[in-house]
Each structure stands twice: as structure tokens, then as C-alpha cells.
Design a protein that fits this description.
The complex is a heterodimer.
Chain A lengths: L1 H28 L4 H8 L6 H10 L6 H13 L13 H36 L4 H15 L2 H15 L11 H31 L2 H8 L4 H39 L5 H10 L2 H29 L1 H10 L1
Helix pairs in contact in A: 1-12, 2-3, 5-6, 5-8, 5-10, 6-8, 7-8, 7-10, 8-10, 9-10, 10-11, 10-12, 11-12, 12-13
Chain B lengths: L1 H20 L4 E6 L16 H7 L4 E3 L5 E3 L2 E6 L5 E6 L13 H12 L9 H5 E8 L2 E6 L6 H5 L13 E2 L2 E6 L8 E7 L3 E6 L12 E6 L3 H9 L5 E4 L6 H9 L4 E4 L4 E7 L9 H10 L2 H7 L6 E2 L22 H10 L11 E2 L2 E2 L1 E7 L3 H16 L3 E7 L1 H10 L4 E5 L8 H6 L6 H6 L5 H11 L5 H17 L3 E7 L2 E4 L26
Parallel strand pairs in B: 1-12, 19-20, 19-21
Antiparallel strand pairs in B: 2-3, 4-5, 5-7, 6-7, 8-9, 10-11, 11-12, 13-23, 14-23, 15-21, 15-22, 16-22, 17-18
Helix pairs in contact in B: 8-10, 15-16
The chains are: A mainly alpha, B alpha+beta.
Chain lengths: 314, 522
């Protein structure tokens, strides 16, 4: 198992390298000139001399591969450059904003799991009954409602009309509840439906019938023989949801005045603030890859077939 | 009974003392981003409204549109218009106790001029040859030429304002400052990235002390969230010229009880620049037809909820030298069609017009993620389709729009004048710079060189009559050539909780006059 984790961690290095190269190149494929973007964001008049100076300053006069290696070398020393628009080093700012985003996304993930699993079990137990249909409606709404709209609806109900929860800012639990719900409803809906389907599928399999024949109680069958097997797809889906949740957080933050990385990153994208976009995207890739690694480990842990076959081949 | 009375008294006293402790007047405000490091001599990410809270100019632009003494009590201009001597106000200190004197002023000017290239867009930065201290309280600025709008540009929110020289980094300000220490009515007390910036009253302020103890500026990026924040009491005031909330949110507050709403007088003019050098807009008949064909009143009521005034000229008549009685291009689609017919743009079956095989098709460029601009562009598109002009909407990200302005790749493009103190002189001055949309749009005029020459002349002439005449000629020429389609005058929006008392508008669109707010009960 330890070797499995080590091997996967080692794989991250070429993955991040590849990602960084792609990000670097794709950004520069756009129609606009980084030197002009730099001048615009620094509020410098784009005279020919200024453009020339910016080109030299940013190293744009050199071949793109040299530029990349240069950037990579600095990045390896944790120097991701200075934001064109803010004139501040990128990494410290990103690391300042990121924890709030991860906190919100993490809470949303907990919420997703804590609600979707019971909902899925409930729906599967009462297939086509009232609970199943209720979950169906929630899922339908969850998947089709844009999260920012849900955010505003929540604010309207709980802050403006009822006055129960603060509409914005960061503080205690009362601040995080609404944005977390707004972000997680979609993942939650998908997860619940997925678990329901997966449980019904497993419930029809032979080992479950045998378990019942052995006289095990319904609860025991459900817990040990259906749920454990049915959870595997959920584990995989959760890995995917992490990306969704972080993506949702970037939008929702701006509505709830949550001091996360969203606004910083989104305005950098609009502004073509290359150093910020590069560093941010790379960080996101790293987080995403790490989450998937955790998912894979959890998977291996939950499913002996994966764990054991891995060891068998070695 | 006695017990009840004394209890009531005690409660009264308690609550009385409570109001005494809450007498700290804190105004909660919001802004889309943090205010930045507040370097008075640099631009983004420093926010102008906050720079204006902390730093002050030598002369200030007053409410009545005149330039009044501020950190300079008086000044003299030499006979040739090239030397300005300022007598500084005495007894002024920076908020850290440092004396504000001629030496500090000269140090600031030198710090600004060390970064001249960055301020080159502002002619005064190019014009100042040197700044010298004559004694402790007199400073002389020497110019290269008899440039006339010196006081106007000194009054701008940046860069000619003063930070305590002890805060310079590496002997200047271009690489940053240690801390934002100014002479203004407020000091920056705390900054939390992504959360808020807190300002406190400057207790050593030389002028009238602000009534507010604190101004807390919360970071709220989204306009709808800002409107909600006011409703839920997180903020007390919405104010700004850059659409702090959408026009319909403003209308909603207007209709609600318990909120004070107001719109400022016009600050700037929002126009389309029509390209005289590219496509069908090269033809003056097309440009005039466009001016006659757009129904601005409907645009204002439909898109802007009536929150703006219609603009018929590039500069509103209140702008210096601009009240010259220009005849507006009235909304008259029939006349517009006749102009096009006469110019040979023929139309079949109500389709798009064409002339010699060239279709009457125009690209309209705007920043695509701005919902209000997009709706305005769509209305123009619909109005022009009625007279047979096909408008292609090109909504792009800001950097692409900027690139188009710079190299003239547009038929029509959104363009806004620069507002008080800049209009007309600085805005006209920039028309001579190729990177500006105005330059590109005017490039097709036969007499562009002549117009630029006149602009150069009007900035340095010392004769008031000649200056007035030159402005009249330039502005009239641009109006007659229909280079612009003026749309609306922009203004500042204000929505306040009633306890705030009367909130005045700033003289400049970039200012929020916190120092003049005298709250009743927040």
C-alpha cells in the first residue's frame, strides 16, 4: 500500500510538468499580446518604446521554450512572478486567499456526503415510493438550478425575509451554511441518485440473495452486503465532485463576499494576468490530482480486489 | 413601586451609557476590491476614492466647479505662464506628525517625476521642468511651456498628491511606499485582503474634522450582493459612478420606504466613436444617419431605468469651453434614411443597404461581460436595422477591446470622456495619441493633422479669447463631422440608509465625500 501511494505521488511530477507546459503554451496561443496586456494592466501608455521595454522586461523577445524554462526554474524556487495588475508577488497572495476557498469547498464536500448518502439509501429502500420520488425532485432541481441563482434565493429567504443568517462575509458556521448549500446541491443530487441506482443494482446480485437465504437481517444485508459494494462508484464520483465544488466556490464566493481565491483568479483570467493564471491553474491541478489520489487510495482500501491484485502482480 | 422606579432608572442609565459607548460613528461602505497599498503616485490597484481620503492636493476642485486653495493657500503665475509659485498652508502635518512643508512637496514632485514615463498620459507630468523650494513655505514649479491647465491637473486625485517623505522606499515612491501617511481627513487603519479596509478619522487633521469616526470598506465584488448588503444592514451606503448596483436595483430602492436615493449631476459622456477611417462609417452621411437613427430616450428608459440623462454632444454644456450652442442631431429616422438614400446607399425589400456592392455593415465593439453595455449595443443594433444598417455586435474581453481601440479595428466602439478636470483639455490632448480610439476614429478626416495642431495650440495659448475660439473650432469640427454618437451622461448613484443624514455628491466622480457626511443615527 505504501509503495502504491509512493508510486502515485512520483507520478504527480511528470503530470504537473506536463500541465504547466500546456497552461503556459495555451495562454500564449490567444490573440492578444502579453506586453500590451502588461501595459494596460499597469496603466502605462502603449507607446512603441513602452511596448519594447515591456517585451524585454517580460522576456517575450526570447523563444517561447526558453521563456517556459525560465518560468519553470523560478517556479521550482517557489517564485511565480509578480501579478501584472496588482504588482504584488503571486504566490503569497494566492496562499492568502486559498485557505478560505478550500474551507468552503471542504465544508461543501462534507455536506454533499453527509446528505447524499442517507438520501440515496432512503430512496433505494423505498424504490418508486414517496421518498424515491422526493429525492428525484430534489435531484432534478439540484442538477438544473445554477448555483449562483440558488445562492441569491437562499439569501433572499434566510437573510432578507427571515433575517436568520448573515448574507455575506466570513465568520462562524452561520456564514458558511448558505454558500456551502448553494455549491453542493448539484453534487449532492448527483450522488444521491447514483447511490440509489448503485444500491438497486447490487441488491439484485446473487451474493445478496445468498445473504438473505443465510437468514441475515435486512439491516445487516443492507449494511454489509449492499452498501459497501454500492459505495464504490460514489467514491469515484466524489473525486470528480471536488473539482466541481471548487469551481462552484469560485463563483459563489463573489456573491457571498467570501474572501477566497475566486475573485482574484477570475479577474486575472479576464485581465490576462499571466503570472496569476499560471500559478493558480497549476495549484488547482495539484489539488485535483491529490484529491484523486486520495480517492484511489480510499478505493483500494474499500475494495480488496484492487488492493490484492496490485500486490499479486508485484 | 420604589424598587420598580429605581430599576427603571437603572435601566435608563444603563441604556444611556450604552448609547454613549456606541457614539462611535462607523460608516459601513463597500467596494468591489481592496483599496490597494494607497501609493498616491501610482495607479491600479490603488483605488482613487481611497487615495482621495488619505492624500490631498495643492488646489482642490470645489463643488461649484472652481479651483480653490487647499494645501496651497495662494499662488502666483509668472508673466510668461511658465512658473507657478505656491504659498503652502502652514500648520499642516502628516498623520504621523511630520511637518508638511516645501521640502516635503518638492520631494513628492521629484518622486513623481522620477517615474515620468508612467505619468506621460498627463501632460503636466511632461511639462514640469523642475520643482524647487524657495523657503519653508513656498514652492515654485517651472514648466517647459506655458501650458494652461496646471491647476486642473494638480487637483486630480493622482498623481500630484503628497505622502510623508519618511515613507519613501529607495528614495522615491515608484517602487512602493512604507505606509500610506498623508495629510487627509482619514488614515488607513487596517487592511484584510479580500475582506475589508478600515479607515479612521485623522485626529490631527488641519481642516474641519470629519463627523465619522470610522469608515469600514467591505470587499463586495458583486453588485447584487451589494444591494442585498444594504438591505440586510451590512452596509449603510451605496455610492459610485461605475454602476455600484444595476439600474433596476436602484429603481427598486427608490420605490422602497426607508432609503434615500439620489443621482448626481453628469460627470462624463458615454459615446460611440465612429471610425472615419474604416468601413462604411468613412462616409459622413452614414455617420450622420447613425446619429439621427438611434432612439436614446427609449434606450435610457428601457436599459438604464431612466437613471441617466441623454447626451447630444461629446461634452455636456457644463464642461469648460463647451457651452457653444451646438445643434444636436435629433432623433429622426426618416431624415436618416433620406441621408443614406442621397449618399447612394440603396435598399431593397427592407434589407441591408449597399453601395457599389459594399454592404452597409458595421462592427460594434464592446466589453462582452458588461450587461448594460450589451443591452445598449443591442438597442443601437435594432434602431439601425430599421434604416437598413446591419450592425454586427462584437462583444469581447476587455483586453481585446483595448487592442481594437489601439489599432483602429472597429466600426463603432464604446468610448467615455474622462470627466471633470480632464474634459475638455486632457481628453482632447489624448486624441493626438495613436493608442486612443479617438485618434483612430478621426484618422479618416482630411484635416486630422490640422485638428491635432489646434489641440496642441489650445493647450499652451495664454490668450483666453484665442483659447475659447480654438476650443469652439475643434469641438464644432468634431461635432459636424459626426465622429461620435453621444449616448448618455454618466453620473454617480447613491442609496443610503436614512440615519445617514444628507450625503452630498463628490465634486469628482472618483471621490466619495465621507468627510462631509454628518450622520444622525446609524
Amino acid at each position: 500500500m505504501a509503495l502504491f501511494i509512493l508510486r502515485r505521488l512520483a507520478l504527480m511530477v511528470p503530470m504537473l510538468l506536463g500541465a504547466s507546459l500546456v497552461i503556459f503554451l495555451v495562454l500564449r496561443l490567444g490573440p492578444s499580446d502579453p506586453a500590451l496586456d502588461y501595459l494596460r494592466l499597469s496603466r502605462l501608455p502603449p507607446t512603441p518604446q513602452a511596448v519594447e521595454a515591456a517585451r524585454e522586461l517580460l522576456g517575450l523577445d526570447r523563444p517561447i521554450l526558453v521563456q517556459y524554462l525560465d518560468w519553470l526554474w523560478s517556479a521550482l524556487h517557489l517564485d511565480f512572478g509578480v501579478s501584472y495588475a496588482l504588482q504584488r508577488p503571486v504566490l503569497p497572495d494566492l496562499l492568502h486567499y486559498l485557505p478560505a476557498t478550500l474551507q468552503l469547498a471542504g465544508f461543501a464536500l462534507l455536506l454533499t456526503l453527509a446528505i447524499s448518502v442517507p438520501l440515496g439509501i432512503w430512496a433505494a429502500r423505498h424504490r418508486d415510493g414517496l421518498p424515491d420520488n422526493a429525492v428525484r425532485v430534489v435531484a432534478f432541481l439540484g442538477v438544473s438550478m445554477p448555483n449562483f441563482w440558488l445562492g441569491f434565493l437562499l439569501i433572499f429567504l434566510f437573510s432578507v425575509e427571515l433575517g436568520w443568517l448573515p448574507a455575506m462575509g466570513k465568520g462562524g458556521l452561520s456564514h458558511i451554511v448558505m454558500p456551502a448549500i448553494a455549491i453542493s446541491l448539484m453534487s449532492l443530487a448527483i450522488n444521491a441518485r447514483l447511490l440509489r441506482a448503485s444500491m438497486l443494482e447490487v441488491a439484485g446480485q446473487r451474493h445478496v440473495t445468498y445473504a438473505r437465504l443465510r437468514g441475515l437481517s435486512d439491516r445487516k444485508v443492507e449494511r454489509s452486503h449492499i452498501l459497501r459494494n454500492a459505495l464504490l462508484p460514489i467514491v469515484t464520483a466524489t473525486g470528480m465532485h471536488v473539482g466541481e465544488l471548487i469551481g462552484g466556490t469560485l463563483i459563489i464566493e463573489s456573491i457571498f463576499g467570501w474572501p477566497g481565491v475566486g475573485r482574484y483568479a477570475v479577474s486575472a483570467v479576464f485581465n490576462r494576468d499571466y503570472p496569476v493564471v499560471q500559478c493558480f491553474t497549476l495549484l488547482m491541478v495539484a489539488i485535483f490530482v491529490l484529491c484523486n489520489l486520495v480517492v484511489d487510495i480510499a478505493y483500494a482500501y474499500a475494495d480488496p480486489r484492487i488492493r490484492l491484485s496490485g500486490e499479486g502482480t508485484r | 413601586m420604589r424598587l420598580a422606579l429605581s430599576l427603571a432608572l437603572a435601566i435608563g442609565l444603563l441604556s444611556g451609557s450604552a448609547t454613549v459607548t456606541s457614539a462611535l460613528e462607523r460608516l459601513n461602505f463597500s467596494w468591489p476590491v481592496n483599496v490597494g497599498p494607497l501609493n498616491p503616485h501610482l495607479y491600479t490597484p490603488n483605488q482613487m476614492f481611497a487615495q482621495s481620503m488619505v492624500y490631498e492636493p495643492l488646489v482642490r476642485y470645489g463643488k461649484d466647479g472652481t479651483l480653490e486653495p487647499w494645501l496651497a493657500e495662494s499662488w502666483e503665475v509668472s508673466g510668461d505662464g511658465r512658473a507657478y509659485t505656491f504659498h503652502l498652508r502652514q500648520g499642516v502635518t502628516f498623520s504621523n506628525g511630520e511637518t508638511f512643508d516645501a521640502e516635503a512637496v518638492v520631494a513628492n514632485f521629484e518622486a513623481i517625476l522620477a517615474n515620468r514615463e508612467r505619468h506621460a498620459w498627463l501632460e503636466l507630468a511632461n511639462q514640469i521642468e523642475k520643482a524647487e523650494a524657495l523657503d519653508d513655505h513656498r514652492v515654485r514649479l517651472t514648466l517647459k511651456d506655458s501650458y494652461y491647465p496646471v491647476l486642473e491637473e494638480l487637483a486630480l486625485p493622482r498623481p500630484f498628491r503628497f505622502v510623508a517623505p519618511s515613507q519613501f522606499v529607495d528614495g522615491g515612491t515608484m517602487d512602493g511606499i512604507a505606509a500610506p501617511i498623508g495629510t487627509g481627513p482619514f488614515v488607513l487603519a487596517e487592511t484584510r485582503l479580500g475582506e475589508h479596509d478600515l479607515f479612521r478619522r485623522n485626529e490631527t487633521y488641519w481642516g474641519k474634522a470629519p463627523a465619522l469616526d470610522e469608515v469600514d470598506v467591505k470587499v463586495i465584488p458583486d453588485p447584487n450582493s451589494r444591494a442585498i448588503a444594504l438591505q440586510t444592514g451590512e452596509i449603510d451606503l451605496i455610492y459610485g459612478a461605475d454602476g455600484p448596483i444595476s439600474p433596476d436595483s436602484f429603481k427598486r430602492f427608490e420605490a422602497m420606504d426607508g432609503y434615500v436615493t439620489a443621482l448626481s449631476p453628469p460627470y462624463e459622456t458615454r459615446t460611440f466613436a465612429l471610425n472615419t477611417n474604416r468601413g462604411p462609417t468613412r462616409d459622413i452621411a452614414v455617420r450622420k444617419a447613425i446619429n439621427h437613427a438611434v432612439d436614446k430616450d427609449t434606450m435610457i428608459s428601457a436599459v438604464l431605468s431612466g437613471t441617466h440623462e441623454r447626451a447630444d454632444t461629446l461634452f455636456e454644456p457644463g464642461v469648460p469651453y463647451a457651452d457653444i450652442g451646438l445643434k444636436p442631431y435629433a432623433f429622426d429616422p426618416v431624415l436618416a434614411e433620406r441621408l443614406l438614400d442621397e449618399a447612394g446607399w440603396t435598399r431593397q425589400d427592407g434589407g441591408t443597404r449597399s453601395r457599389d456592392g459594399e454592404p452597409l455593415r458595421i462592427e460594434l465593439c464592446f466589453t462582452g461581460n458588461d450587461a448594460v453595455l450589451k443591452s445598449m449595443a443591442e438597442i443601437v443594433q435594432a434602431d439601425l436595422a430599421r434604416i437598413g444598417i446591419a450592425v454586427e455586435l462584437v462583444g469581447e474581453e476587455e483586453s481585446s477591446v483595448y487592442a481594437r481601440q489601439r489599432d483602429g479595428r472597429f466600426g463603432m466602439i464604446f468610448n467615455t470622456t474622462w470627466g471633470k478636470l480632464y474634459d475638455p483639455h486632457a481628453f482632447l490632448s489624448a486624441m493626438r495619441v495613436p493608442a486612443h480610439a479617438d485618434y483612430q476614429a478621426q484618422l479618416g478626416l482630411d484635416d486630422k493633422a490640422e485638428i491635432d495642431g489646434k489641440i496642441g495650440k489650445v493647450l499652451v495659448t495664454r490668450n483666453e479669447e484665442e483659447r475659447r475660439a480654438l476650443y469652439r473650432e475643434i469641438i464644432t469640427r468634431l461635432h459636424d463631422a459626426a465622429v461620435y454618437l453621444p449616448l448618455v451622461y454618466t453620473n454617480a448613484m447613491l442609496v443610503a440608509r436614512p440615519g445617514l443624514g444628507k450625503v452630498p455628491f463628490g465634486a469628482l466622480s472618483s471621490e466619495v465625500p465621507f468627510e462631509a457626511i454628518e450622520p444622525g443615527d446609524l
